[in-house]
Amino acid sequence: MRREGMVVSLENGCARVKFTRESSCGKCTACDGRPCEAVADADIEVAIGDRVAVEMPDKAVLRLSVITYGVPLFALLIGLAAGYVLWQGTNVSINADLFIAIIAGVFLLLGFFALHVLQGKRSLQQYKNVRIIEIIKSYS
Question: Is 129 left (phi over 0), alpha (psi -120 to 50) or beta?
Answer without folding.
Answer: left
